[in-house]
Automatic annotation (TrEMBL):
SUPFAM superfamilies named in the record: Hedgehog/DD-peptidase
Protein name as catalogued: ARB-07466-like C-terminal domain-containing protein
All copies of domain ARB-07466-like C-terminal, residue ranges: 126-238
Signal peptide span: 1-20
Alphabetical keyword list: Signal
Amino acid sequence: MRPSFLFPLFAILGASGVLGDTLYPRATVNGRCTGLGGVPGVCIPTAKCKSGGGTYIDNACPDTPDDVKCCIKASCGNNGGTCKWTNQCSSGNTQSGLCPGPNDFKCCLPKGSDGPWPTPAFPAVGECKKKSVDGAKKIVSAHKGKVRQIYCIRQCVDPTSSEHCVGLAVDLMCSRAGGVKTTAGEPIAEWVMNNRKALDLKYVIWGQRIWNPDRDSVKPWSQWRKMDNRGTITANHWDHVHVSFNS
């Protein structure tokens, strides 16, 4: 019987892709790759890369469809950010909506940056109600560069536990990262109070204080009703302004 060389060759190709004399791990669509100079990248279709402001290189996403290339975006945001995978961002300061690819490929910003931020991505109208999206747009427009990220919908066991459960609330993140205390939310929160009718406001929370148009008169944030200590910066609303809307 003639010796067969098919099995060794299949074993090598089955475990990896081959380019020249170098073995590369198999790539996947929306998976990781490395661009020129070691810049982190993502394997996505070229059209998606270009529409997201990225550039791409060949031969870095083996065993993927021909139109899938290694996409990088070396510059994002207004503070010297670079698109990276979230677990590669040593500062922990990331912003969504600025990089092509999946949700965990984000703009990694320097740790010390505290704005101004580019206009954040707004939630889609659907589970997040139109009133919430429109309200968020009004608030952001009045505070350009002050809001880093916006959250709306939350999956809840009890839909009555929060307006987030039914898409009638937004969290406006205004510190450089979640869990980092800032003073930037105070003027935003007071603006929300002063524009309560245009927003159809139910209540607003900032810095462990709450204001409700049905209960409270217009007053500085420092005189709003105090809330119980919930234990963390985020739970006490020191890194974001919470705005709830009437149904």
